[in-house]
């Protein structure tokens, strides 16, 4: 079933939706959005202060949830979280999925990124060497842990990546979580976007809504089949397709869409710079590029061609250009002297002149 979905269907390469009425509405909304962005930046400071000083409990969750609503992050839940659940397993859509689930469950997410320690609690994160769940983490934290085994966000509209980036010890009770995210005017995420862009868009828009669906608890088995089983469970609850694509496939596809081959003019300038101070005709350089396809190949080909030409004329110059600028200038002057002498000799022979001495 996973083969029916193409990898590119799992991601959006742009924030913007297709042009239409939504584009017109976005233009009309823009002044309001800018005002909201400025005001919410100041409110975000209050959120961090309260998240830092309040102890983890139900009151803290309610207060932070209200402030997040003002900031444009709204949450709705379906079902109940397990009262003794220690590990939540969710699909991944945005950079703030863990924060939304934290406000509903008080769960914290592991991260390998180096973040200021005082920001860890407000952002619902804890530092770890890897993103897998260990017995030590479960025993050390009183609060539950939230993990995203897909590894990277998808658009949450078509399918899910395979669960490959997280390992959970055998015997643990886990609760799958189905997550959906919606935004007006914009897609939920963009594969090429930065965290800064996502923050600005979130504060600019009226709201970003997270719909959290708590599913039946499962037990991690020894064989590791829980990954396929849990992926299928979450996908079915969200009407998505569980695919076999991994974060490695995503990375390769991202390289392809971001790669922009250099123009012929740029390549020609690079060739000429490497062959300087010798000046070649543009047609000669373009012909070499068409023959070899690369800058290095064209440079090597032109050097060999020039060297062969000079050797055929009896110049005795080496097949490669000297490395230093002084040596290159000397070889240039030598070639110039040979060309003048050759032209002079041809002129004398053509006109039958007898010049002695």
UniProtKB/TrEMBL annotation:
Subcellular location: Membrane
GO annotation, biological process: ERAD pathway
Ranges annotated as spanning the membrane: 26-54
Keywords: Membrane, Transmembrane, Transmembrane helix
Entry GO CC: endoplasmic reticulum membrane
Principal cellular location given in the protein's record: membrane
Protein's name in the database: Ancient ubiquitous protein 1
């Amino acid at each position: 079933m996973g083969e029916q979905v193409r990898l590119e269907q799992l991601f959006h390469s742009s924030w913007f939706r297709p042009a239409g009425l939504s584009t017109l509405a976005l233009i009309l909304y823009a002044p309001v959005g800018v005002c909201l962005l400025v005001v919410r930046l100041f409110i975000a400071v209050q959120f961090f202060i309260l998240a830092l000083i309040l102890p983890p409990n139900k009151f803290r969750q309610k207060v932070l949830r209200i402030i997040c609503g003002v900031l444009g992050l709204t949450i709705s839940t379906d079902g109940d979280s397990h009262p003794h659940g220690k590990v939540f397993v969710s699909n991944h859509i945005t950079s703030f999925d863990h924060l939304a689930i934290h406000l509903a469950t008080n769960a914290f997410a592991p991260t390998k990124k180096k973040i200021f320690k005082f920001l860890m609690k407000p952002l619902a994160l804890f530092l770890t060497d890897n993103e897998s769940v260990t017995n030590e983490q479960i025993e050390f934290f009183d609060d539950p842990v939230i993990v995203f085994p897909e590894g990277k966000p998808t658009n949450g509209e078509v399918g899910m990546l395979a669960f490959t980036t997280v390992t959970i010890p055998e015997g643990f009770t886990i609760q799958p979580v189905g997550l959906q995210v919606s935004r007006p005017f914009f897609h939920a995420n963009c594969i090429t976007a930065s965290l800064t862009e996502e923050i600005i868009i979130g504060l600019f828009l009226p709201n970003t809504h997270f719909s959290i669906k708590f599913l039946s608890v499962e037990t991690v088995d020894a064989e590791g089949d829980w990954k396929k089983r849990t992926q299928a469970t979450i996908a079915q609850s969200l009407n998505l397709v569980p695919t076999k694509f991994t974060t490695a496939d995503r990375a390769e596809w991202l390289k392809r869409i971001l790669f922009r081959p250099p123009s012929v003019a740029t390549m020609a300038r690079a060739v000429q710079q490497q062959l300087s101070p010798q000046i070649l005709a543009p047609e000669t350089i373009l012909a070499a590029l068409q023959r070899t396809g690369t800058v290095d190949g064209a440079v090597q080909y032109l050097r060999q061609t020039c060297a062969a030409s000079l050797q055929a004329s009896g110049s005795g110059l080496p097949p490669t250009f000297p490395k230093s600028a002084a040596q290159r200038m000397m070889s240039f002057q030598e070639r110039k002297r040979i060309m003048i002498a050759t032209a002079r000799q041809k002129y004398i022979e053509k006109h039958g002149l007898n010049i002695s001495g």
